[in-house]
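Worked example (supplementary).
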Amino acid sequence: MTPDRILRIAVIGTGPAGMYATEHLIEDRNLNVEVDLFERLPTPWGLIRGGVAPDHPEKKLIVERLFDYFFKHGCVRYFGNVEVGVHVQPRELARWYDAVIYAVGASDDVRLGIPGEGLPGSVSAREFVAWYNGDPDFSHLDVDLSHPRAVVVGNGNVALDVARILTAPVADLEKTDITDHALRALKASAVKEVVILGRRGISQAAYHNPELEEIGHLDGVTVVVEGDDASPPNVDWATRRKLETLRELSAQSTRAAERRIVFRFLCSPVEMLGEHKVEQLRVVQNTLEPVSNGTLQARPTGKRLFIDTGLVMRSIGYRGTPIPGLPFDDALGVVRHIEGRICDDQGAVLGNYVTGWIKRGPRGIIGTNKKCARDTLRCLIEDLQAGRLTPAELRSTEVLQEIKARQPEAVLRPGWLRLDHAERTAGRAQGRPRVKFTEREEQLTLAAEG
Amino acid sequence: MAYVITAACVADYSCVEICPVDCISPGPDETGFEEAEQMYIDPRRCIDCAACVEACPVLAIFEDDCLPATMRHYAEINREYFGERSA
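After joint prediction of all chains, the assembly is encoded as:
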């Protein structure tokens, strides 16, 4: 190792994956690094800002208690509103830097692949989440809350987030940093029931315990369980806790409630029906069948039923999208890599790495990305020590000139701090953590000097 | 007495790294980390040093008699994770 050599590294994406990678780089005392953070949006923090539910402010503490320290570090720069593949190409970054770490997450989602999925009223939970959290690209999503019933397909933590936002008392959400356009829509919402569909049984539900428990803390919401009440004998500890929590939640559901959340298990969507928009969802009931790897698979029975609804949200998984110029594994929806080193048919594309969801797929929670970043950086350091990294061709001032020339509206760190300040100030007046500005133009104006 | 990790945990494992008696699981190299919903503190081995409290980036850790009302059962959940059943 040559500790006096300054290692210039680009980290693409400022969500947990990118920020944990930055943390590991800065904290490694054997390295002398300069990190440039590239972000597609004017605002940083990826899914912390754009994914974590507004009623989970404690999870967002990670920004001020951890990520902000590295973001503001003297060896770190921020290039917001700069998109790799648009303003700068991966092959250029590879030359400009000693190494490039892609931490771009999963920006698409898995489709249901059923007839009628293209009808208005059929959206993805990912888009709905981006809408209520203020991603400027989704501010104008048409979310129709005029029907008393909404259906969420899939029962992971995102499905529960969405069900909670749709049924929570608006007065509670008014204290959060949920977007104003979402608040207006939820105030006028006719939704009284959210049905959460799980293709498998009650013991195979994908949600975690904390998220399930929270459903029980919602004022005026009752919980109903349909389709599967089996209590299988041999389930693990975490599953047993989830079964107990769900049993408690449904046992409390005697009082007349304003809204209800229905957990319907063993049920798959087959078709969305409606003339101009979704009016009905046709579903089929499933049974469980053991398969060779020891798990249970859902198998459709002949039994069908119809659910009247005006809004169907698919929430069956996020999916990575290809980065122009980098090898992509279409089956897994991730960049092709071996232990974090990006690889094509010829082997490692030296100096290029992945971490987070674009590396391992959309699994795990915020901290799972810390280990993921650690593992990727071990490969990077190994490559550095073996002399496999080609030194950066540009100096840091030259990179800044290039960025400004290619994207005159790039948001640098002081710009984000101005926008952040404006959001917090607007929030203080309303007793909220912040009021998010959700139009890109507005964000850029506030970020601009003066 | 012991400290307890509650539902806000994001599995950042700064607590595991700082714990002087190694009583927090699952760490990043243990099986089950990738699927973990949260980390847990073994109440039989916790020495009440509180180092983890400040290390936690989301303030998810409380002393067991200071747990917020909605999180009281997490003392039991932390204990159960380590296979001990209290009566």
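Two points are worth noting when inspecting this output. Chain A has a mean pLDDT of 95. Chain A has two domains: 6-107+320-411, 110-318.
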